[in-house]
């Protein structure tokens, strides 16, 4: 099974990169130089559409762009994260100057400060202007660039909402700076950091120290994730870390899990249409994208309503489904199920018959609905016969 998944990941990566990567040269006034960009757009991207996509900015795009693209293709295939616009910044020999920093604070200075301004004042505004981007931005950086991306956190309104630190080479007081900043941050921030027992020793020491500081941060707005791999080098940890990071950052986007079903939905204090509406509103508020509630998700909360003996939720779930898509049958089917459970046989039968005129879905097909109609017809006939006797 693992070999099959690995093969699929490689295949998706190969197809995705070759078919949808745009190579651009960006003229920067801040740097007085030209920078090469690799831009991967989502499958079926339409510039005229209202759909918005998160942006993942990959520093060290020379070698990190392709692993990020492959992992995003893999996770979007299984609906574990939204499709995203991935921007790889090729740095090459300029990397040393891009990461130039103050030895005490660890913050960008001189060349590094100009590179920082290039990102904030030129590159990201350009991406927002020319592509359908959402407000959710992710920064990915490895060792020196892992240190660099933390500088964006120190602004009042951080440019990036998620930070993927791949074995960061913390400089000066950077670890203390970010732990202090994250303590007082008011908006949701995702922060992922990784090292390994076979990582470069000085870097690993700094990361372990930073982790101790970050674990002490008591702030509900911070979503902090940390991994310490076994047996991976400074370079081989990248692939697994990207998988873990994206999985955690976009956890809310993923379909309802068994844990959520048992611990959150079954115990929810209120009708379940409210629960699922709030869940998807959080997705829109956080990631800046609109994700319709899938039929599978509707089926899960209907199942939960039945388990809870929560008849009131069935009707409200049906109305919510019809509001989202009145052309499909499952919303009307749920309303019919509500009427049936209340013993309103005639109303239930009419609703089931109305569902027959709508589009069938994966879970609610015409055969299922016809069985319901026939069962209620027999029940109605039996009741009428009993009343005649």
From TrEMBL:
It comes from the Bacteria. The keyword Signal applies. Pfam families: Esterase. Residues 1-19 form the signal peptide. Keywords: Signal. This is Esterase. The lineage of its organism: Bacteria, Pseudomonadati, Bacteroidota, Flavobacteriia, Flavobacteriales.
